[in-house]
Specification:
By secondary structure, the protein is of the alpha/beta class. The chain contains 9 helices and 9 strands. The structure holds flavin mononucleotide and iron/sulfur cluster (2 copies).
């Protein structure tokens, strides 16, 4: 039996969750996409771990499903499941994942969502504090353990379709664009960490300073992980250093 975990994580929550799955090969989807990891042909269990983004599967995970999984022979996969991190309102995300997989002929057998600290600044305004993080995790941990038990026993739990799904599906392949409130301050040292962790390759280092381009999915990885807090978002305060090391989130 071989379990592979493919994880998309902007700010670390989903990677933390992925690493809790026992006896599994855990890899960022970027490793599959850039050829540094190839999923073994005899993989029979696949876990997709990712955050809810706008009630849907985030763009990088959609791309992984259609471009990587969609171009391989998945006939050995007997049990495919999704673990979703969210701020408490995942809504259509699990159902969306099932449909994305269905599009490439793969059946999702189980999905579960777990509340984690909310790293999305437009709604939350400030980064989650350590105290908030601790409280949220305390409540979530037992649910994670139960879901891990379920998936070790290959239980079936299918996501429900909720009203409004069609509208969300149209809007969901979400949408990269300019992030007008995100800016780089004078504190920037040009270290390149933000460029290495941006899931959209949307940051370049020019003349020793980070430049944010216009293909942003508002994941806020750059904001939270800049070592000198040089990336600003309006009046947002604090950074979420989260549950894994920044090094682990490097994609290039
Ligand atoms: C662009 C964006 C959209 C989000 N949308 C949702 C959402 O629809 N529902 C929800 O509960 N949480 C939402 N969140 C919160 C994240 O799902 C949550 O913080 C997640 O654990 C982050 O995972 P990561 O650290 O692995 O990137 C959103 C976060 C971002 C950055
Ligand atoms: S991580 Fe921060 S200091 Fe480093 S290049 Fe990016 S903005 Fe500048
Ligand atoms: S530039 Fe946008 S997509 Fe890239 S890390 Fe920052 S917030 Fe995320």
């Amino acid at each position: 039996m071989r379990t592979v975990v493919a994880v998309y994580s902007a700010t670390g929550n989903s990677l933390y969750l992925a690493k809790l799955i026992p006896d599994a090969d855990v890899h960022l989807i970027d490793e599959f996409m850039n050829g540094t990891y190839t999923m073994p042909e005899d993989t029979d269990r696949l876990a997709l771990v990712f955050p809810a983004n706008a009630f849907s599967v985030p763009y990088p995970m959609r791309r992984f499903i259609s471009e990587y999984l969609g171009n391989r022979d998945n006939s050995s996969l007997g049990y495919v499941y999704a673990f979703i991190t969210c701020a408490g309102i995942p809504l259509y995300t699990a159902y969306d994942a099932a449909r994305c997989l269905e599009d490439i002929g793969v059946v999702l057998s189980y999905a579960a969502s777990f509340r984690f600290p909310d790293t999305y600044l437009p709604l939350k305004k400030n980064a989650p504090t350590e105290e908030e993080t601790e409280k949220t995790l305390e409540k979530t941990m037992s649910l994670i353990k139960a879901a891990i038990d379920d998936t070790e026993n290959e239980k079936i739990k299918l996501p429900h379709r909720l009203p409004g799904w069609r509208i969300i599906r149209k809007a969901s392949p979400a949408v990269a664009g300019e992030n007008k409130k995100l800016s780089v301050s004078k504190r920037c040292t040009g270290c390149g960490v933000c460029a290495a962790i941006c899931p959209m390759e949307n940051i370049s280092i020019e003349n020793g300073k980070a430049v944010i381009n216009s293909n942003c999915i508002k994941c806020f990885a750059c904001y939270h992980r800049c070592p000198v807090n040089a990336i600003e978002y309006g009046k947002a305060q604090g950074q979420y250093k989260g549950l894994v090391k920044t090094e682990e989130l490097r994609r290039r």
